[in-house]
Design a protein that fits this description.
CATH architecture of one domain: 3-Layer(aba) Sandwich
Largest sheet: 10 strands, mixed
CATH superfamily of one domain: Collagenase (Catalytic Domain)
Keywords: Disulfide bond, Repeat, Signal
Strand content: 5-15%
Protein name: Peptidase metallopeptidase domain-containing protein
GO molecular function: metalloendopeptidase activity; zinc ion binding
CATH topology of one domain: Collagenase (Catalytic Domain)
Strand order of the largest sheet: 5-1-2-3-4-9-10-8-6-7
Distance between the termini: 45 Å
Number of strands: 12
Shape: globular
InterPro entries: MetalloPept_cat_dom_sf (IPR024079), Myxo_disulph_rpt (IPR011936), Peptidase_M12A (IPR001506), Peptidase_Metallo (IPR006026)
Helix content: 10-25%
CATH class of one domain: Alpha Beta
Pfam families: Astacin
Length: 383
């Protein structure tokens, strides 16, 4: 059974016993025989001991630290430097693989007030994403995938603007730097920051020198998903209504410990289980979109021949088997909700703007709205 490419949208800091010869490739984890499963670290926000009446409710999440000392949350979201991460989160456990000279052991027991990682992300001013490549060499490697991903988003959300500036290795606050670091995985920042540099990494196929690391590349579909994060979209699977549309099989996670089933619970999750944690306090906006470009595929972080997410019976919905390549109309509407001042005046944004008779977001004849946003009585014409 072929594993989904979405599984490779992770910070692939993976280590196994020396006898394991197969590495992670397109989400296929090696046999458990002779080696241990990789597990990310676990951290929590908030402060359960707070007595000052401040809402510091803890939220657990999974994290990895790449060779550039960047912390990657929940598989593919860049938080920033690890030194900043430990100032805001309490470390419960470390990843089973740690790059040399990255994680500082002295931080393990420090407890600090944390930011909530699922707060509404900051938005790009005027809906304009300013990006650059780390070098001309990086542009030659991943530029075609980046441009195609941008075009996919622009087709659905034409108000989004993407401005490329000259390639540079400088880390500039408010600019997205696109890199292609070997073994660096596929990951990007969530939203915008005017005070911190922003990152996207699209590793390409290469022979990684560190043992057990992926040599699978990240391509157009991966970049499309990551640009969803960049504009401000989080994973669909973290929505509180997730379980109404799919079934989470925690026992199929690669790092599941049958001796500790409590590690699957949202409040006590550890490792990859925290990536599937739902945010029960955050209100949802709009219907759940199982076909979203931000939806996890069925086999994310699963053991071979298993799935972590299954179709829910009697819903008529089906989980994607691979990366979703194109943003959906509901993705476009979510982006429109993030940037309402810019999202005006075009057909297909789900808003009936001046001059339009209708706008369903999908604009198929069968939903009563034409691609030109004109009303169409489908039943009358066909009966």
């Amino acid at each position: 059974m072929k594993k989904s490419p979405v599984t490779r949208i992770v910070s692939l800091a993976v280590v196994f016993n020396a006898v394991i010869l197969q590495v992670v490739a397109r989400g296929q984890y090696p046999s458990a025989s002779g080696g241990q499963w990789y597990s990310p670290g676990t951290a929590t926000s908030g402060n359960p001991g707070n007595k000052r009446g401040v809402d510091d409710t803890c939220e657990r999440l999974s994290y990895n630290v790449n060779q550039n000392n960047l912390t990657i949350l929940n598989g593919d979201i860049v938080f920033g430097q690890y030194d900043d991460f430990v100032k805001q989160f309490h470390i419960l456990s470390q990843p089973s693989f740690v790059y040399p000279n990255t994680i500082d052991q002295q931080h393990n027991h420090h407890y600090r007030r944390a930011l909530h990682p699922r707060d509404t992300p900051q938005l790009w001013p005027d809906a304009k994403i300013v990006y650059k490549y780390y070098s001309d060499e990086v542009k030659s490697k991943v530029g075609p995938y980046v441009l195609e991903a941008i075009e996919r988003w622009h087709l659905k959300s034409p108000f989004l603007k993407f401005e490329e500036v000259n390639a540079s290795c400088d880390e500039v606050p408010g600019q997205l730097t696109i890199t292609s670091i070997d073994c660096g995985g596929c990951n990007a920042n969530l939203g915008y920051s005017s005070t911190k540099p922003l990152y996207m990494n699209l590793q390409q196929s290469s022979e990684c020198k560190a043992p057990g690391l992926s040599h699978t590349g990240c391509y157009t579909d991966d970049a499309t998903h990551l640009f969803g994060h960049v504009v401000g979209l989080n994973h669909q699977t973290g929505r509180v209504d997730r379980d109404e549309h799919q079934v989470f099989n925690c026992k199929n996670l690669v790092d599941y410990d049958p001796k500790k089933p409590e590690n699957c619970h949202d409040e006590e999750c550890m490792g990859w289980a925290c990536t599937f944690r739902v945010d029960k306090k955050k209100q949802v906006c709009g219907p759940y979109d199982i076909e979203s470009v931000m939806q996890f595929a069925h086999d994310l972080f699963s053991k071979p021949e298993t799935s972590t997410l299954d179709d829910k019976r009697d819903t008529g919905e089906h989980l994607p088997r691979y990366n979703v390549p194109f943003p959906t109309s509901l993705d476009s509407i979510q982006v429109c909700d993030l940037y309402p001042s810019q999202c005006t005046g075009f057909c297909g944004n789900g808003i009936v703007d001046p001059g339009e008779e209708c706008d369903t977001g999908t604009n198929h004849y069968t939903d009563g709205c034409t691609p030109a946003c004109k009303s169409y009585n489908y039943k009358k014409e066909h009966h």
